[in-house]
Each structure stands twice: as structure tokens, then as C-alpha cells.
């Protein structure tokens, strides 16, 4: 059997008992023709493999370059140097894959910028920063399933190709097999989608929510976790065209139950990572602190990364209404000194600067805002008795703004169809959705958590393109 290797993380945690071990990985450094630092991605830490002088011929020594892959067999002994408990005294070294050190685009000693690393996203996983980020991303994804499984939710795979626009914003990617240069047309000149693959106009999904609601009316509690797509031309540090969403839908839940679940969920995810990825978080916290030293004092975070995460899990989220939020903004020094770029008045869709003011300057903790004006929210949100607002909720997080958006859903058929008419949403296309209100309707609620925004929050990274493996953004679909 070729692969009898022990992972570097496990070796570093073991006792130096003199047993023979096999380690495989990529070279991170080679000093004095004696000391090889090997990393296999299981941890940011390297294991040192010690080679006796004269054991390797000159040609082999020259092949031990940065990022060459090797197999080392040897004895696990107590380390002679500082920094690690154990090292491997090599009995044999085999080079599995060469790496031309002159041409290799990732020279770790130069501390490449995040912008440059996005251009070589196929290699950036090999850096310590991205090693830590993607191990944390994995842990968060695992914790998502663990949380809902422990609560008895059913995991639903909702379709990626859909004929409905759940958000009503119209920013969707079309899915078609029709020829672009000469599509079939109807007599009035419009495109004849009956000739298309699905026999109708279809798009990549913006949300699994509507299908999730269908399942919740049978299983009571379900969640989806999959890719979603928005053709929104936003080239910001917080937007992607392809991203992952977690969307639970719960029958017999009202807006307060919804808030309680979302807060519990966020705290659970953070706790899981703090328990299982402490080493990675400490590395990312140090990285963030070093980065912020370059910033002026007023632009630096008041808390370190781990401090911030502990603060979130140890404090209740602030809960306010949209109306209260607008009042706070209108009374704020930032508003009075005209520091907001966007206007503040009742009825606006709050911008990121408003959301971040509420959480970072005013409350200094995550905030749940409820009771938004119905004009700025989707058709499916439950209308409140005041006739002006809906039972919506957004959770705003420090450094990011909105991280969760949700609502109690409108379960009353007459109210829902009336709202769809007002918003020019064709009821005949959503007949299946309306059926859930005809056949045993029930109060229900749900929310969506943008997974990359959660990863951004937990890792302390500042650009969403650095927490997804291969970012899809306007004018960019490399790799």
C-alpha cells in the first residue's frame, strides 16, 4: 500500500516514541541541505524532516525546492530545535513531484498580496492565510449540517435551474440551449421559449426558499444549503455572482421564533469553529491585527477577532424595529454632520453604511431589525396589521452589515394574492406556491444566511472573494 502516511497535524500532536512514520507533503523550506519543512494542508504548521549530511546525492538535493512534493520515511524523535515537540529523522526521501523554483509563481517569502493571490487562485490554497480560511470554511459548513440535524430538520436539495424569481428583483442568469445569433421567435417578434430545452424561460436560482416552503408544509422543519446566483453588477468587497445560501423554513414559527433560531444558529456556528479550529483562528486574528496596524487609529477594530467572536456568542443580539433604527440614524452625530453618503428617512432600504453604524457605533453588537416597510420587501412577507410594514427581519453584523435576511411568510391566501397583484407577479406562474395556502395553510417563517458573509465574519477577512475558492464576479470567471 503506497499511502501509509500520517498527517502532519497528527504527527505534531504525538509523542516522540521512536516509531517509524511516513510523511508526505509539499516542501515549505530546505535549510543547510539538512532540514526540510513539510506541509500537507492539515495544519499551517510544518513538520521538520532531518536528513543526515551525505544521505542524499547532489542531484536529489537540488530537486528539493519550494512546493516540490516529497515522501519521507523516518523515525519520530524529540525535536532538537525550538518551535516543535517532534521531528522526523529521515531514513529515505522520495521526490513525488518536482517544482521549478525559478518559475513557481507563489514565492511565499515575498508575502504576496491578496489581490495577486486572486490571480493565481489555483495556488493560493498553499499559503497559510488561505489554508486557515478554507479549513474554517469547512468547519462552518460541517457545523451547519450538525446544527440542523440535531434539531430534527430535513435537508432538502432545491433546484438550481428554476422558472421563478423568488426575490422579484429580476437579476438572474438565463439558462438556455437556444442559439444566440438566431433564436426562434413568435409572430410578435418575442423569443419562442417553447423551443427551448425546458419549453419555457428558465434561470439559475436566486434562492431555494419557495421550494423550501413547499417542503416545510409537509416536514415542518427543513433547510437548504446550496449555490445561488445573482446577476447583480456589484463589484464590491461584499458581493458575489455565485455564492452559497443556507435557508431554513419552519412551519408553526412566527417572526419571534425565527429570530430566536437565527441567533442560536449563528452562535452555534461560531462556537463550533472556536472549539475545533482554534489554531486557525489565532493565526487569522494575528494576521488581522498586523493588517490593521497599517490603518489610522479610527479605522481599526475595537476588538481583536477572537475577542469579537467571544463577544457575539456571550451577548444577546439587540432587537429593534426598522422605525427605531431610522430614528437612531436621524439622531446620530454621523447624520447631523452629514457623514452618510445615502439619505436617511422612513421608507429607505438601509444601506451598508447605515447598518454598520447601528452595529459598530451605536449598539456595538449584532442587531436584529424587524418591521420593514412593505414597499422595500418581497411579496411573500407577512403583512403587519398597520398596513405599512411586514414581519421581516435582518440580522446585521459588525464589519459586514446584513448577514441574515428573513421573515414570517404570508400564509393568508387573499393577502398574498393581493400583494402579488400590486407587485405585478403573475399568480398563474406560481400556482404551486399558492396551493400551499389553499391546502392546510399554516403560520410559517424562514431566513437565509449568506454562507460567504458568515465565513467573512468568522475569519476576519475583508473581501468576500477571499473566502470562496473560485470567486465569480462581474467580468471574472477564471479557473
Automatic annotation (TrEMBL):
KW ATP-binding (keyword) present: yes
Cellular component per GO, a single term: cytoplasm
Keyword terms: Aminoacyl-tRNA synthetase, ATP-binding, Cytoplasm, Ligase, Nucleotide-binding, Protein biosynthesis
Catalytic activity: tRNA(Asn) + L-asparagine + ATP = L-asparaginyl-tRNA(Asn) + AMP + diphosphate + H(+)
InterPro entries, per database record: Aa-tRNA-synt_II (IPR004364), aa-tRNA-synth_II (IPR006195), aa-tRNA-synth_II/BPL/LPL (IPR045864), Asn-tRNA-ligase (IPR004522), Asp/Asn-tRNA-synth_IIb (IPR002312), NA-bd_OB-fold (IPR012340), NA-bd_OB_tRNA (IPR004365)
EC annotation from Swiss-Prot or TrEMBL: 6.1.1.22
Family: Belongs to the class-II aminoacyl-tRNA synthetase family.
Pfam families attached to this UniProt entry: tRNA-synt_2 (PF00152), tRNA_anti-codon (PF01336)
Protein name: Asparagine--tRNA ligase
Keyword Nucleotide-binding: yes
Location(s) in or outside the cell: Cytoplasm
Subcellular location, principal: cytoplasm
Domain Aminoacyl-transfer RNA synthetases class-II family profile residue range list: 134-471
BP GO annotations: asparaginyl-tRNA aminoacylation
Assembly notes: Homodimer.
Gene Ontology MF, one: nucleic acid binding
Annotated PROSITE patterns: AA_TRNA_LIGASE_II
Organism: Niastella koreensis (strain DSM 17620 / KACC 11465 / NBRC 106392 / GR20-10)
Amino acid at each position: 500500500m503506497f499511502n501509509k502516511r500520517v498527517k502532519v497535524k497528527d504527527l505534531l500532536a504525538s509523542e516522540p516514541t521512536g516509531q517509524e512514520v511516513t510523511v508526505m507533503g509539499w516542501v515549505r523550506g530546505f535549510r543547510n541541505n539538512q532540514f526540510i519543512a513539510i506541509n500537507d494542508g492539515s495544519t499551517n504548521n510544518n513538520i521538520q524532516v532531518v536528513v543526515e549530511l551525505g544521505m542524499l546525492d547532489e542531484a536529489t538535493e537540488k530537486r528539493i525546492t519550494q512546493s516540490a512534493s516529497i515522501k519521507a520515511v523516518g523515525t519520530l524523535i524529540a525535536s532538537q530545535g525550538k518551535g516543535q515537540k517532534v521531528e522526523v529523522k529521515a531514513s529515505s526521501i522520495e521526490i513525488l513531484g518536482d517544482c521549478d523554483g525559478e518559475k513557481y509563481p507563489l514565492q511565499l517569502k515575498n508575502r504576496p498580496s491578496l489581490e495577486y493571490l486572486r490571480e493565481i487562485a489555483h495556488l493560493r490554497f498553499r499559503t497559510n492565510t488561505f489554508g486557515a480560511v478554507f479549513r474554517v470554511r469547512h468547519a462552518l459548513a460541517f457545523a451547519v449540517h450538525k446544527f440542523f440535524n440535531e434539531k430534527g430538520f430535513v435537508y432538502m436539495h432545491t433546484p438550481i435551474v428554476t422558472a421563478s424569481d423568488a426575490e422579484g428583483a429580476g437579476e438572474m442568469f438565463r439558462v438556455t440551449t437556444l442559439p444566440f445569433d438566431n433564436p426562434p421567435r413568435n409572430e410578435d417578434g418575442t423569443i419562442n421559449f417553447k423551443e427551448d430545452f425546458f419549453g419555457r424561460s428558465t434561470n439559475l436560482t436566486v434562492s431555494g426558499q419557495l421550494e423550501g416552503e413547499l417542503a416545510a408544509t409537509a416536514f415542518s422543519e427543513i433547510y437548504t444549503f446550496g449555490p445561488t446566483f445573482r446577476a447583480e453588477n456589484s463589484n464590491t468587497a461584499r458581493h458575489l455572482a455565485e455564492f452559497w445560501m443556507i435557508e431554513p423554513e419552519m412551519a408553526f414559527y412566527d417572526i419571534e421564533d425565527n429570530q430566536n433560531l437565527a441567533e442560536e444558529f449563528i452562535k452555534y456556528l461560531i462556537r463550533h469553529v472556536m472549539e475545533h479550529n482554534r489554531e486557525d483562528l489565532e493565526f487569522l486574528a494575528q494576521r488581522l491585527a498586523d493588517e490593521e496596524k497599517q490603518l489610522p487609529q479610527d479605522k481599526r477594530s475595537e476588538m481583536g477577532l477572537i475577542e469579537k467572536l467571544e463577544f457575539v456568542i456571550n451577548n444577546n443580539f439587540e432587537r429593534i424595529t426598522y422605525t427605531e433604527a431610522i430614528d437612531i440614524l436621524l439622531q446620530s452625530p454621523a447624520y447631523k454632520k452629514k457623514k452618510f453618503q445615502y439619505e436617511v428617512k422612513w421608507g429607505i432600504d438601509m444601506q451598508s453604511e447605515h447598518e454598520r453604524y447601528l452595529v459598530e457605533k451605536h449598539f456595538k453588537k449584532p442587531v436584529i431589525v424587524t418591521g420593514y416597510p412593505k414597499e422595500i420587501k418581497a411579496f411573500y412577507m407577512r403583512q403587519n396589521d398597520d398596513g405599512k410594514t411586514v414581519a421581516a427581519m435582518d440580522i446585521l453584523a459588525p464589519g459586514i452589515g446584513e448577514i441574515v435576511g428573513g421573515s414570517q411568510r404570508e400564509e393568508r391566501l387573499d393577502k398574498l394574492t393581493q400583494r402579488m397583484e400590486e407587485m405585478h407577479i403573475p399568480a398563474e406562474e406560481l400556482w404551486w406556491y399558492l396551493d400551499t395556502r389553499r391546502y392546510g395553510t399554516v403560520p410559517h417563517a424562514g431566513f437565509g444566511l449568506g454562507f460567504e458573509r458568515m465565513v467573512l465574519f468568522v475569519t476576519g477577512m475583508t473581501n468576500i472573494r477571499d473566502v470562496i475558492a473560485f470567486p465569480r464576479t462581474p467580468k471574472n470567471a477564471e479557473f
